[in-house]
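Show me a record, fold above all:
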Amino acid sequence: AATGAIALPIGMRLAAPHLFLPSLAASALVLALAIPIIARRGMEPTLLAFATVVCAFACAWGFFVATLPAHEERRAEHRRLAESLLPAIHIDQLATYGLFSRRLALGFFIGRPVIYIDREKKLLDYLTPGRRGFCLMEGIEYDRLKNALPPTVVSAGRYRYRHNELVLIKNR
C-alpha cells in the first residue's frame, strides 16, 4: 500500500502533470489509512493483503485514466494521416516501409490491411513494374532510395506525421 501510494504521484508527475496534486492527495489519504493498519501488529494478514491489492488496483486505474488523453491524441494522429491518404490511394493496396510505420494503425482507419515492409529487397519486389500499389515511407528513406526504385515509381504526395515528413510513392 505504501509503495503504491508513493509511486502514484511520481507516475502522475511524469505521465500527467496536471493530475499531480490530486494524486498526491489520494496518496496521502491511502497512507493515512495504511499507517494505523500497519501499526496494529495483530492485524489479520488476509485483510492487509486485501487492502494492498485494492490500493494497487486503485493506483493502476488512476494511472491508466490519467494517460487516456495521450492515447487518444496518438489515435487521432493516425486517423488524420489515414484520412489524408485515402483520396490518393482510393481502393489500391497500401504498404508502409521503415521502422516508423510499425506503430501506425493505418489499416484500422482505412478499413483494409496495410502491408508492412521492413527490407529494401521486399520494397523493390513490392514495387515491380506492372503491379499497382502505394507505399508510404519517410522522406529521408525516399531520398536515399530514389535512384534504386524502378522508373515506374513516382511520388504521389508528401504528408506530415508528428515530426516526420512522409512520402507516398506509387507504381504507375
Observations:
- The two ends are 62 Å apart (CA to CA).
- The mean pLDDT is 81.
- DSSP finds six helices and five strands in the chain.
- Strands lie at 94-97, 115-117, 133-138, 153-161, 164-171.
